[in-house]
Each structure stands twice: as C-alpha cells, then as structure tokens.
Amino acid sequence: MIRSLYDRTMRLADHPNALWALAVVAFVESSVFPIPPDVLMIPMILARPSRAWLIATVALVASVLGGLLGYAIGAFFYEGIGQPVLEAMGKADAMEAFNERFNGVGFWAVLTAGVTPFPYKVITIMSGWTGMPLGTFILTSILARALRFFVVAALLRGFGPPIRDFIEKYLGLVFTAFVALLIGGFVLVQYL
Prior knowledge:
Blueprint: H1 2-12, H2 18-29, H3 38-47, H4 52-88, H5 92-104, H6 106-115, H7 120-129, H8 134-159, H9 164-191
Helix pairs in contact: 2-4, 3-4, 3-8, 4-7, 4-8, 6-7, 6-8, 6-9, 8-9
C-alpha cells in the first residue's frame, strides 16, 4: 500500500499543478500523511533547477502550516479525550511532569524531527498535546523545515541528478548526525 502511495506521489511531480500538489503533500505530511514532500521536491527541482528556491519555499510554508494542524490535533485530542481519562485514572500529575520534561527539550525535539527522517507529524502532535508554547513551536518548525528543504534544494540545484542518490540514501543520516553533534556540543559546553 505504501509503495503505491509513493508511486502516485511521484507521478504528481510531472503534473502541471505540481507546486499545488507539493503544497498539499507537505501540509498533510506534517500531521497525517506517511510520504515526505522530498519525494515530490527532488524530481521537481531536477526538472527545473531554476525553481529550486520557489519549490523549497512552497514546501516550507505548507509544512509549517500543516505542523500547526498537527499541533491543533494534539491540543484538541488531549484536552477533549486524554486529560479527562488521565484525571479519572489519577495520572494527571504524571502527565504534567511528562509535559514539563518534553517542553524542556521541545526546541530540540521539533528541530530534530524537522530535519531528520523521524516523522515530523509525531512531534507536531506531541507539541500540541504537551502544550508547548506555540511561538517556540512555530519558530523551531520554520528553522528545521527551512534547513531541510533548502539544503535539499541547494544540493540538487548545485549538483543535479548525481546528488539524488546521496540525498535519498544518506541525507537523513547526515542531518541526524548533525543534530546529535549539535546537541552533544551544547551538553559538553554546559558541563565544562
């Protein structure tokens, strides 16, 4: 099923309304859809490298707006369903402690999910669920998604088709290593 969804998504890259299709895919990927917008971005940029920045911008804006939908899903379902259940079970305090821990590292969680292969939608929903400050969520989402989409656009525009395999196979790992080193550097500086 995922393979046929992937193939259909790839065919959208050749459609005359590909930018709109990219916007829809980037929007829904941030809250429910399993296929990342990179699947559309890569062939679109390879076909028209001069539009790389426009394509990355469309993906960025739609993804952040979709992230706000994910945030709302988390906030709505927690307040409407999760919180009353936890209160009935006497676990509201435990959830409050979890929320404080998550929100204490929320910037890093959103940044990591926004640039790595970790599903961004999980963090958008968790951010709403835990009541992460909306401003922190939005700014971090913009930073993370811009980093991801504009790096992909720059690589494709600069190196063309030869870089495609690298992006599809290793860019997620490179971003993951980058975030791990960044977090490790902050932790090291904090304890020195």
